[in-house]
Write a structure and sequence with these properties.
single chain, 180 residues, alpha+beta, SMI1/KNR4-like, 5 helices, 10 strands, Knr4/Smi1-like_dom
């Protein structure tokens, strides 16, 4: 799974193993124990993961932001630490904690300020969601009511969906990081 991400052309700043372990411990005090595939990802990379090119994925259900090919984009993954302007996972959680009440945590930045999230509690624990940040996320154990689109049932399934789009067709998604 980790080598699949590296094949997409990633940029990240290596950090010391002891620092990664300490930061993961701090994170799991906030979130509870994370799914193993996702915590392994954080421990492998440590810092934010930026891509050298646009990376896309096809969700189980297309989001309102999906392009004509039903693809959404991920611009970067939040890491345990950052050496650039991007949010760390701690900053992303702090920004969106009132929206998700720790049932979901943001793990990646998508087009237009939308978020890629992982469910941390309940029957849907480990599932990956696209959040349209224009809509309040309403989510419970049984159904998704608003603002969220199911991407994958687990993190490694999400990683397997990541691809560099070969077709240069226009997309509804817009790139960039907005700092308001």
């Amino acid at each position: 799974m980790l080598s699949e991400i590296e094949l997409l052309g990633v940029k990240h700043a290596p950090i010391e193993t002891i620092k990664k372990n300490n930061l993961l411990g701090k994170l799991e005090k906030l979130t509870g124990v994370l799914p193993k595939d996702y915590s392994d990802f954080l421990l492998h990379f440590g810092s934010n993961i930026n891509f050298n090119t646009m990376v896309y994925f096809k969700s189980i259900e297309p989001s309102p932001w999906a392009d004509n090919n039903k693809l959404d984009a991920i611009e970067y993954f939040y890491g345990l630490s950052s050496t650039d302007d991007g949010y760390t996972i701690f900053e992303a959680i702090n920004t969106y904690q009132n929206n998700f009440k720790m049932k979901l945590i943001p793990i990646g930045f998508s087009s237009g300020g939308n978020q890629i999230c992982i469910c941390t509690k309940g029957k849907r624990r480990g599932s990956i969601w696209f959040w349209d940040h224009e809509i309040d996320p309403i989510f419970d154990e049984g159904i998704t009511i608003s603002g969220l689109t199911l991407v994958a049932y687990e993190f490694k399934e999400f990683v397997a969906k990541l691809t560099v789009e070969k077709d240069n067709s226009p997309s509804k998604g817009i790139g960039g990081h907005f700092d308001f």
